[in-house]
Amino acid sequence: MVWVNQDKCAIAGVGATDYYIRGKSYPRTINEMVGEAILKACDDAGINVKQIDGFAYYSGAQMGYGDKVDTASLMEMLGIEEVGFTAALTSGGGGAAGAVGLATAAIQNEDANYVVTVMALQQYRQRLGTVFGASAPSPENSFLQPSGLVGPGHLMSVLARRHMHLYGTRREAFAEVVISQRLNAMNRPQAIRRNELTLDEYFASPMLADPLCRLDFCLETDGAVAWITTSTERARDLKQKPVLIHAAAHGGTRNWGRAFAWMGMPDPDFGSSGHKPIGDRLWQQSGLAPSDIDVALIYDHFSAMVVMQLEDYGFCKKGEGGEYVESGAIRYKGGSTPVNTHGGQLSEAYIIGATHTREAVEQLRGVAINQVKDAEFALVTGGPASLPVSGCILRRDS
Amino acid sequence: MSGIKYGVAQAVPGDHIQITTDTWTEPYWQAAKEERLTACQCGKCGHFRMPPTAFCPGCQSQDVKWPTLPGTATVFSFAICTRSPFPDVPDFVYVPIVVDLDGAPGARLVSNLVGMPAEDVTIGMKVAVEWNDIQDGWKLPIFHKA
């Protein structure tokens, strides 16, 4: 059944700070970076910041895992007079691609006209990579943390190994995700990692959590990204060509649940991204199939999870993700569905998924650095993580 | 599968491990203190759940049993970690494992495998429990090759 809100709302503007290597954004403050991204998004859209009347966050309005923004503080700082909607998807980066659905709810319910979604990350006190081991565990986490699985990469490596065991997935597949995205980052001035990468260099990278090596881990960076959602009708009167919200879904099943914080998932969910129910809903909402997607912005905190998402969204069969990526299918040059044309979180910057929406917007306006010719449909996904996981399909305006 | 020789998998140093408990997890840890491996079982329908929670997800009963398990398990998946999780402890090799517990179908434990070369650990391997003394007088179940 076609989604009732299909193409009714649109992303009208997007803005971002510079991207910094972890900690290098100091002494800027998190609110300052959030403010800059929002102001740039307003400028891009051609609206005054005072027109913002809604906030649709993800990650519980946490900015990374140590900072949090508060709508009232942002209103005070930016001079926003009144809001009619302020809400967040729960949990963490899993909701990154679902926040446009939350913004759509705000607009279609006539609670707000110009809704901002923002994410920022600054890691000068605590590295995100060690965040889970930094303090005494909760009673629930006392069943996980004592094992020494203290970083997200540790946790993800256990899922990756199960996938390798069940389906024969090779490290060469993870390498292809890393190398193909690096190729996409090489011509991008804002990308943190731009040097060419060979397969030999990949295999020489130190193992941090076997089967994952350092290059399988995303970057640790600082920065902020924001975007403005409004009705498609309003967006068509603004500065930029609108990017339509064609389908959006968040949620997931109990069999995935807390995922790698739980480790209780049965097969085949264990060696997956938890995204299959989201993919199924997006295809149902849109009537599209994976072959209709022109460019896919797949959440890449860890290379292996890209392989599993490609399976869960149906770009290939379950268990065949390794072969699929090794065939060259995800390459910008010559691939059937280019993936992470901005270099992704592995090579460009990691702002908890927000850079993927920015790239989707640029692709569908036709102004991306690695532009996919005539791109009409972009898939954006949120992080394979504790529920909700999320995805959306964005569309070029005709 | 990486071909790297890591050497013998170590236990995570117990004096660096903390746990906390609540009403529903406390009996598990009290049993562990007596070196008795248990899992949370529904007193009504017999369904196992780990970690222990306030309701059975199958029948929503709050009745619980804490049966003594055989203390053996099967490796479901694992990682090989090479960096110390603690700033004051030098790097060491440790193997976090996810195991299916014998005698408690559906219940998994996240633990560590110790006492064998990390590169020889395999999925499907049978393991048996031993105990690591951790902070505040608690004991943590860890495993060696059965």
Describe the fold and architecture.
Chain A: Residues 269-382 form the Thiolase C-terminal domain. Chain A: It holds the Pfam family Thiolase_C_1. Chain A: GO terms for molecular function: acetyl-CoA C-acyltransferase activity. Chain A: It comes from Hyphomonas oceanitis SCH89. The complex is a heterodimer of chains A (398) and B (146). Chain A has helices spanning 30-45, 71-78, 99-108, 152-167, 171-185, 199-204, 232-235, 276-286, 303-312, 321-326, 344-347, 354-365, and strands spanning 9-16, 20-21, 54-57, 62-63, 67-68, 85-88, 115-121, 207-210, 212-213, 221-231, 243-251, 295-297, 377-381, 389-396. Chain A has 398 residues and is of the alpha+beta class. Chain A has one domain: Peroxisomal Thiolase, Chain A, domain 1. In chain A, the strands form 3 sheets. In chain A, strands 1, 2, 3, 6, 7, 10, 11, 12, 13 and 14 form a 10-stranded mixed β-sheet that branches. A two-stranded antiparallel sheet of chain A has the order 4-5. In chain A, strands 8-9 form a two-stranded antiparallel ribbon. In chain A, helix 5 (171-185) crosses helix 9 (303-312). The two termini of chain A are 22 Å apart. By secondary structure, chain B is mostly beta strands. Chain B has one domain (14-145). In chain B, 5% of the residues lie in helices and 30% in strands. Chain B is built from 1 helix and 9 strands. Chain B has one helix at 26-33; strands spanning 40-42, 48-49, 64-65, 72-78, 80-81, 95-101, 108-113, 126-133, 139-145. In chain B, the strands form 2 sheets. Chain B has a 5-stranded antiparallel β-sheet with strand order 7-6-4-8-9. A 3-stranded antiparallel β-sheet of chain B has the order 2-1-3, with no helix packed on it. In chain B, strand 8 and strand 9 (139-145) form a beta hairpin. The A-B interface holds A 130, 133, 136-140, 142-144, 146-150, 154, 157-159, 161-162, 164-165, 171, 206-211, 254, 263-264, 270 and B 1-2, 4, 6, 12, 17-22, 24-25, 29, 50-51, 57, 76-83, 85, 94, 96-98, 108-112, 118, 123, 134, 140.
